[in-house]
Amino acid sequence: MKRFLKGIWAVVKSMGNWRGVLSLFIVWLIISGAGLIILGFIIRNNWLKGIGITMYAFWLGPFTPLIPINIGLAMLMQRFIFRDKSVSMESIKEKFREGKGE
Predict the structure, then answer these.
(1) pTM, to two decimals
(2) Which pLDDT band, with edges at 50, 70 and 90, does 54 fall under?
(3) Are 95 and 4 a contacting pair, CB within 8 Å?
């Protein structure tokens, strides 16, 4: 588990420019349900808050892969939406190898 977390941290550190941070934040807001909760509070819509809380509760359950999915989608967003050429599948694999200690 420690190696896995080190690998994830290495990938997140490699996303260190503003495009990577923004894509990671946007994807986390969308996938975790936190964005719906915030939007529900802003527009005072209990239905949105309920859906957001349900999504958030699902991801808090055991063995749900929120972090890897979030990082993967954020890197795709950084690469294709923000057109950041510094992100490639090879660099992602290399960072995970570094985290594993290989």
Answers:
(1) 0.73
(2) very high
(3) no
